[in-house]
DNA sequence: CAGTTTATGTCAGTGTTGTTGACATTCCAA
DNA sequence: TTGGAATGTCAACAACACTGACATAAACTG
């Protein structure tokens, strides 16, 4: 196992940021930061006895109203059975509405109800608040680097999904 | 709910990177990137019928050999019952060794066995490989920004734990 | 020394979230 | 029209988090 230096070949440029130690720090930063990232919504969700899966569903339905179950499935990267359980409770609780497709009656199009939209707002307000504080602390240049590295960390299909969402939203 | 612009007050400087839309992009990037971040170790772990919890324990025991259960507990942020279940299997499978403390016999000090260290190496090689590729893609400046934002995203206690680990390792 | 606190482990129960398997419905194409 | 593909639902199960209660041993405190 190469220790302390990457196996990528050490050119003239400074590649010190690619040492195993640097990479390990990044890995641990990612671990701790993700806990912070989810902490605020998690607290809110716990009171409603929902979990992260509910949050994710609500987020992406809000993001793309009328999306189909299949669509959501490919974004979330879970099995349809797993998603279905979450959707069932959200529909049962009146946060999400499921409409049979007009063109294709096999499809279900998903929408947030007013109540669902309210919860979405609460959750994303909390998450954005932390994000905003972090961005502000770190500054615009750091944010650009942050996004660049995150995008490079994704699998190809995630990058596609991410890009698609940005098209819609920007 | 303010939409499109943060509520922080818009000074003369460019704060466009703090718009709700920008923050949402960051949130989604974080979501997708974390999937990528864990994907490679997850595949390896699945074959051994271990999970992320095992990976985390192995990682931090490797990081701080001889650490106590309590210490690990505060880093991982889970209950002792949850950690104990994981440790029990790892010790039973001969990947982790638990030694009664010499000074304080209540404490258990945790070490990786050779077999445990081998798995740790496999897992972190896989995770580092992706990290290295992402870092290389994004470049040194981006990496600096990446770490800066992640650190700003942590809770105070996580930041402490993270800093402590960096002391040891650097 | 007696009583309390600390560190650890265990048992039982519960909830969320992931999985696979089986199945119903709908669409489409041979 | 019949068979396959796509879409979604229900049931059962496993992993892993949680709480609560309790046991043990060691350390600390008055």
UniProtKB/TrEMBL annotation, chains A, B:
It comes from the Bacteria. GO terms for molecular function: DNA binding; DNA-binding transcription factor activity. Residues 20-155 form the HTH marR-type domain. SUPFAM superfamilies: Winged helix' DNA-binding domain. Transmembrane segments: none annotated. It holds the Pfam family MarR_2. Keywords: DNA-binding, Transcription, Transcription regulation. InterPro entries: HTH_MarR-typ, MarR/SlyA-like, Tscrpt_reg_MarR-type_CS, WH-like_DNA-bd_sf, WH_DNA-bd_sf. PROSITE patterns: HTH_MARR_1 (PS01117), HTH_MARR_2 (PS50995). GO terms for biological process: response to stress. PANTHER family: TRANSCRIPTIONAL REGULATOR, MARR FAMILY, TRANSCRIPTIONAL REGULATORY PROTEIN. This is MarR family protein. It comes from Leisingera aquaemixtae.
